[in-house]
Amino acid sequence: MFAGVLMLVTGATNILQGVAAVRHDSILRRLTGYAYTFNLTSWGWIHIAIGIVLACVGFALLARMGWARYAGIAIAALNLVAQFMYLPRQPVWAVVGMALSAFIIWALANDRYGFGAGGGSRGGSGYGART
Predict the structure, then answer these.
(1) Is 58 exposed, middle or buried (0-12, 13-18, 19+ CB in 10 A)?
(2) For 76-109, how does the pLDDT look when each residue is reduced to its tens digit (9 = 90+)?
């Protein structure tokens, strides 16, 4: 549940970052002298697309769909790279986005109760079941 909620929040922030980039908002810094630069409009659309996918996978995680765990790890890793590339434009929000993505990956990779298997404190007998 933690990862699903974080994916919804991260997806929403990505969409807002993307909208600000598409509008060429004045809150985004002008780049000078960086090793990599991107077209701000296309980068905004990339953030919007990643945000939509993050939110959709977040809803799938909350619905306990089995494929969503692996898709969540993959899209969170992609978002981590995207936020790193966004670092020169908005350093604080990029670091927050990277931290959220890292927490998502951690939460999905450390599922001790068997995602979707009905284990855990609800009576399962698999790995990590409480007795």
Answers:
(1) buried
(2) 999 999 988 878 777 888 899 999 999 999 999 9
Q: Global pTM?
A: 0.76
The b-or-e profile of 71-109 (16+ CB within 10 A means b, else e) is bbbebbeebbebbeebbbbbeebbeebbebbeebbebbe
Reading the block at residue 62, the tokens are 């909350």
Averaged pLDDT score across all residues of the chain? 80
Find, among 71, 74, 17, 78, the residue nearest to 9 by Cα.
17
Structure tokens at 18: 């993307």
What are the CB-based long-range contacts (under 8 Å, 24+) for 34-40?
Answer: 34/88, 36/85, 38/85, 40/89
Question: Cα-atom radius of gyration of the chain, to the nearest Å?
Answer: 17
What confidence tens digit (pLDDT) does each residue in 88-97 have? 777 888 899 9
**Could you give the CA distance from residue 27 to residue 17 in angstroms, rounded to a whole number?**
10
